[in-house]
Write a structure and sequence with these properties.
- By secondary structure, this protein is mainly β.
- The protein has one domain: Immunoglobulins (Immunoglobulin-like).
- Helix content is 0%, strand content 48%.
- It is built from no helices and 8 strands.
- The strands form 2 sheets. It has a 5-stranded mixed β-sheet with strand order 2-8-7-4-5, with no helix packed on it. Strands 1-3-6 form a 3-stranded antiparallel β-sheet, with no helix packed on it.
- It is elongated.
- The termini are far apart.
């Protein structure tokens, strides 16, 4: 049986940063998404349940933060999963941040 759940689904969108491969020197990046109303009951990023998403809500955000250890220099992959009320995964998408070294004041 072929699974179709990972094909692009317009009900689940990452709205910021605009590119799904984001390069930065910042130590903190706010990732934001939108969800069609009543499309998902909960959202996780790398198995962390987002408190910013209310059941059956329409938006979420997550901070990739070098100080919190969830973003390191190099390539960081974030797995965003959407679940129904029974805890069944209904959609999954990936988001990549390439964290470049933070420039120092002395050049």
């Amino acid at each position: 049986m072929v699974s179709h759940k990972y094909k692009p689904d317009k009900r689940f969108r990452i709205t910021a940063p605009a590119a799904d491969y984001f390069e930065t020197t910042d130590k903190k990046v706010r990732i934001e998404g939108s969800v069609s109303a009543d499309a998902a009951y909960s959202v996780t990023i790398n198995d962390f349940k987002l408190a910013s998403f209310q059941p059956n809500g329409t938006s979420w955000y997550y901070f990739a933060n070098q100080e919190f250890g969830n973003m390191q220099e190099g390539t960081n992959t974030y797995t965003i999963r959407y679940f129904d009320a029974n805890g069944k995964e209904i959609y999954k998408q990936l988001f990549v941040i390439k964290k470049n070294p933070t420039p120092t004041a002395a050049q």
